[in-house]
Write a structure and sequence with these properties.
Catalyzes the 6-electron oxidation of protoporphyrinogen-IX to form protoporphyrin-IX. The chain is of the alpha/beta class. The chain is built from 19 helices and 19 strands. Among the domains are: 248 residues, 3-Layer(bba) Sandwich (FAD/NAD(P)-binding domain); 107 residues, protoporphyrinogen ix oxidase, domain 3. Bound molecules: flavin-adenine dinucleotide.
Length: 559
């Protein structure tokens, strides 16, 4: 039997205003009530049979017997896996353990009765995986989609310029200069230097080579800040933009454009062969999604469906062991005292630096690899202004004041510290998230190239984003805004930097040496494995459910 001592930190620093604390308590009560209202065993699934077995001696030791699967982490990754496992096989005996007093992980929607705001992710790309999961969980009516015509702006030379939505606007618009357009166009059709054999390129190298330096600076660099809060000179093209980087060699001849055409053709063919689930809402243009009341509605809904018999809040994993008969034995500190649970399989969806502690004594070398994944700090700062505070140059004005559009991104070269600003009041106008005479914006600040952000307190963060908003969207002399919610994430988003996949493979290989691979029942999930986007975490979590069920099935057949 090998052993490890578990974790005490969850890696995020709560730094919210009192209002947030009040709403968090309310939300916890709501989650608890929701969890407990879902049946005596807590589950809304029809349980045909239970495969768990607990011996009397286990019970004496305060053990909960043997589970089929324990999923550690109640973020979107873990809950997607858990919900899908139960949907596919109601009789599998699973448990989701979450260290916090609420589910959602990074997904943190706050509601103080006057404002609803996001402290973590603000929206998701409405891919079919998320929409289907929401429909399966009976939450179709909760899906909200932003106006698909919303513009995304990028700051360049003091002006906010709308990102081109299609090829004609890219060619005719002023987003790129004519030399920049010609370089990007020629590169896209394949007239560019080929990739150096065997080299892993950074996002900066990949885009500059394919589309030119100007397209990189104006188009892609701000997205690296916006999505990863990352450094494009460090992010790996293959790991961070996998679906785009493969396009270069996908088409009938090398180049992003022929690759994109082929991908489009394949996508259309696939759609014909597998017609879309008719329950899913139609997605128009380049919209983004949320849920009524905020993104956290989804994890809360999934947890409610699973019930309190399955989802355990405030369960802190303190020890992971492997038993001689190949089971995993997890020891937790819980509100009801210490508990030990055995399982045939485990899915770890905690952040990599937490997994490092989790596996340290069963696989000390693997723990060293997990420690190497980098999560820079990011602060989310939500503020509200009077609607007439905004200058509306270059945008269509709302009759009642405020801004139209998805939001704006700030390339690092433009000397604006805030990474990007989301126009929350416009995006979710129908969801009543802010008083009607105010306009709420969400700013993200910090990231891999501004780790000093951690030194600022809440008021300084508000002042910093306000100073930047004065440079771009506010009328001069606009007074400081109302502080709605501020949160410092000291370890925010895993960076898919050069060597990311190699590091993950290395960690998995070292786990395998200690009989802790997928073949032994240990599955790794979460955003540093799946990809950072909310939708990608859901997609991966759903797929992982099948892998775990297959493992259990195989095990059952070999016993
Ligand atoms: C500030 C910020 C803004 C973002 N913006 C966007 C966006 O707009 N759109 C988008 O698509 N994505 C965005 N993302 C990324 C996205 O939110 C995440 O990648 C995704 O939510 C991760 O989900 P997860 O379940 O993999 O991990 P997490 O949400 O980290 O969940 C892991 C869970 O494990 C729990 N845990 C940790 N330790 C233990 C333990 N010992 N025992 C039990 N449980 C434990 C944690 O409490 C947590 O609940 C953003 C992320 C951040 C931080």
């Amino acid at each position: 039997m090998t052993m490890t001592t578990g974790i005490s930190s969850i890696g995020t620093k709560k730094n919210s205003i009192n209002r947030a604390k009040v709403s968090s308590t309310r939300r916890t009560r709501r989650v608890r009530a929701a969890l407990s209202s879902s049946g005596s065993k807590g589950s809304n699934f029809v349980v045909r049979a239970s495969s768990s077995s607990s011996s009397p001696s286990d019970d004496e030791n305060n053990s909960l017997g043997i589970k089929d699967t324990i999923i550690v982490g109640g973020g979107v990754s873990g809950l997607s896996t858990a919900f899908t496992m139960k949907s596919k096989n109601a009789s599998c005996d699973i448990m989701v353990t979450e260290i916090r007093d609420r589910v959602g992980g990074n997904v943190t929607s706050k509601n103080d009765g006057q404002y609803i705001w996001e402290e973590g992710p603000n929206s998701y790309q409405p891919g079919d995986a998320v929409l289907k999961l929401a429909c399966d969980a009976g939450m179709k009516e909760d899906i909200v989609l932003a106006n698909p015509d919303s513009d995304r702006y990028v700051l360049w030379d003091g002006e906010l310029r709308a990102l081109p939505k299609d090829i004609p606007t890219a060619v005719l618009g002023d987003f790129l200069t004519w030399p920049g357009k010609i370089r990007a166009g020629l590169g896209a059709v394949g007239i560019r230097m080929p990739k150096e054999e065997g080299k892993e390129e950074t996002v900066k190298e990949f885009v500059s080579r394919n589309l030119g330096e100007e397209a990189f600076q104006r188009l892609i660099e701000p997205f690296c800040s916006g999505v990863y809060a990352g450094d494009p000179a460090m992010l790996s093209a293959e790991a961070a933009t996998g679906r785009v980087s493969v396009l270069e060699n996908k088409g009938p001849w090398p180049g992003l454009f022929p690759g994109a055409l082929k991908a489009q053709y394949e996508g259309a063919k696939k759609k014909k062969e597998n017609p879309r689930d008719p329950r899913l809402p139609v997605i128009e243009g380049q919209t983004v999604g949320s849920f009524k009341g905020g993104l956290q509605t989804l994890p809360e809904g999934l947890a409610k469906q699973l019930g309190e018999g399955i989802v355990k809040l405030q369960w802190k994993l303190i020890k992971t062991e492997k038993t001689e008969d190949g089971l995993f034995s997890l020891t937790y500190e819980t509100p009801e005292g210490e508990k030990k649970v055995k399982a045939k399989s485990v899915v770890f969806t905690q952040p990599a630096y937490v997994v490092a502690d989790t596996v340290r004594s069963i696989a000390p070398e693997a723990a060293k690899s997990f420690e190497k994944f980098y999560y820079p700090p990011v602060a989310s700062v939500t503020v509200a202004y009077k609607r007439d505070a905004f200058k509306l140059d270059g945008r269509s004005a709302l009759p009642e004041g405020g801004l139209t559009g998805f939001g704006q991104l700030h390339p690092r070269t433009q000397k604006v510290r805030t990474l990007g600003t989301i126009y929350s009041s416009y995006l979710w106008a129908d969801d009543g998230r802010c008083p009607k005479d105010e306009f709420m914006i969400l700013n993200y600040i910090g990231g891999a190239r501004d780790v000093e952000i951690q030194k600022l307190n809440e008021d300084e963060l508000v002042q910093a984003v306000h100073a930047d908003a004065l440079k771009t969207i506010l009328k001069p002399d606009t007074p400081l805004p109302k502080k709605v919610g501020v949160r410092m994430w000291s370890k925010a988003i895993p960076q898919f930097n050069l060597g990311h996949w190699k590091l993950l493979d290395e960690a998995k290989e070292l786990l395998k040496k200690e009989k802790c691979s997928e073949e032994d029942g240990l599955f790794l999930g979460g955003n540093y494995v799946a990809g950072v986007a909310f939708g990608r975490c859901v997609e991966y979590g759903v797929d992982q459910a099948s892998d775990v069920l297959n493992f259990l099935d195989k095990q059952r057949r070999t016993v």
